[in-house]
Amino acid sequence: MYIRMDQLVRAIAVALDIVEGELLGASTHHGKRIAALSVAMGRYFGMDEEFLTSLATCALFHDSALTEYILSEQRENDPAMKLHCEYGQRNAEAFLLNRDVAGFVLYHHERADGDGPFGKKEGEFPLGAEIIAIADTLDVTHHLQTVSPHALADIRKQIDEETGSRYTKRAAKAMLAVLDADMLSLLRNDRILDTAERIIPPWPVDIEDLSVIRIADLAAHIIDYKSVFTKQHSVQIARKAWRMGEYYGYDKLSKSRLYLAAALHDLGKLAMPTHILEKPGKLTDAEFATIKDHVRFTQEMLKDVTGFERVCAIAAGHHEKLDGTGYHAGKEADEISFDERIVACLDIYQAVSEPRPYHAARSHAETMPILYDMARKGFIDERIVKDLDAVMAVYSGVELPPTFHLAP
Ligand SMILES: [Fe+2]
Ligand SMILES: [Fe+2]
Ligand SMILES: [Fe+2]
Ligand SMILES: [Fe+2]
Fold first, then answer.
1. CA of 22 relative to ligand 3 center, distance in Å
2. Smallest-distance ligand from the CA of 236
3. CA–CA separation, 52 vs 29, rounded Å?
4. Between these two residues, 89 and 225, which has the higher pLDDT value?
5. I need a labelling partner for 127 at 20 to 30 A (CA). Which of 155, 241, 244, 255 fits?
6. Which ligand is nearest to the CA of 35?
7. Measured in angstroms, how far is the CA atom of residue 328 from the centroid of ligand 4?
8. Would the pTM of this model clear 0.85, i.e. be above it?
9. Is pLDDT larger for residue 271 or for residue 251?
């Protein structure tokens, strides 16, 4: 069973750009513009398609450590800047790319004169990083989505002036070769999604492949780190879902789907304002309506990934209730699959047991009565609640480890 990795990579990159836009006040689509420019420069250097895909993925995710180390982008010389680079590199490598991308993200804030966070000079960091660095700097400085063609001369002049100090010579030369009026038009906000479609060629991967799990894990971390109160939410639900799949005797494909849906179920939360997600106390009706929309966003982001149809359906059903009062589709019991019910139960279990602004962490014994009560009221599946009680009792107060789903 194959999925289109290129489409999944893009879906998560779109989600990431939304967070960056909110957190930094930076223009959205930043990652996609860096990727488009990087691929164009890579072509200028004669890189082959597989190398371009690896480079494009690094470029799309160069700022993926943003939610963990938010302030580093805003204050140069901040020690957190190094962590931003190190975690970004780790995240890019989660994709198990076909080409060696060592240092591509790690050194994306280096300068030719050695004045970057790691003090690497021109020639001491790889071409992939030089490419991402110049694209990144230009986009942050000039907001390339809004540059008019006649402002192009100023940008080119600035590249010239800073070649050898900020930019490496070969990266500057490549950028000057590819940055023209046509390229600028491809980077505009109204065209960038189409442009991004063409950055990475079709890239089929088996859905059970470790790389798919690792990418879902990465997305789960990004989602969870959006708010300190949920920093383990999606990853824990995913690991618990795998455990429930084992309990039900699922084959690897079914377990993988359940895991992926659980990891990605709140992907749409990336598009939700943090101040509402973190609001202590009761939400207003309007705020609750906004938050409910996260399920629709999850579905929107995943629905076009070929091979992910079931995963998308399970993820999008995690707030449905058996009595028909759930959201966002308002499904009736007979329309809600067993896997959707599992993720719905785990979502509640996790939310009730983890610490939140409005309640402390709860043990398994403190959590279960709340789930039984919801089952009694006809909201969630009683059988699954009982199974959850049996399976999770031994993990009370324990976070399931990262390699949990890989254990035999
Ligand atoms: Fe960065
Ligand atoms: Fe960036
Ligand atoms: Fe949710
Ligand atoms: Fe959730």
1. 19
2. 4
3. 19
4. 89
5. 155
6. 2
7. 14
8. yes
9. 251
Locus of tokens 């223009």: 27
CA–CA gap between residue 190 and residue 207 (Å, rounded): 32
**Ligand 2 center from residue 66 Cα (angstroms):** 9
Q: Torsion over CA of 349, 350, 356 and 358, rounded to 10 degrees?
A: -10
Which residues crowd ion ligand 1, with CB under 5 Å? Answer: 63
Domains, in order of start, for the chain: 2-197 (1.10.3210.10), 207-406 (1.10.3210.10)
* DSSP characters over 48-70: -HHHHHHHHHHHHTTTGGGTTSG
Ligand nearest, relative to CA of residue 263: 4
Number of Cβ atoms within 10 Å of the Cβ of 356:
17
**How many angstroms separate the alpha carbon of residue 403 from the centre of ligand 3?**
24
pLDDT band at residue 240 using 50, 70 and 90 as cut-offs? very high
Query: Which bin fits 143, alpha (ψ -120 to 50), beta or left (φ > 0)?
Result: left
Pairing between β-strand 204-206 and β-strand 2-4 as defined by DSSP bridges: antiparallel
User: Tokens 């088996």, residue?
Assistant: 206
Nearest to 345, CA basis, from 324, 363, 372: 372
The angle that helices 210-224 and 5-24 make with each other, rounded to 10 degrees, is 20
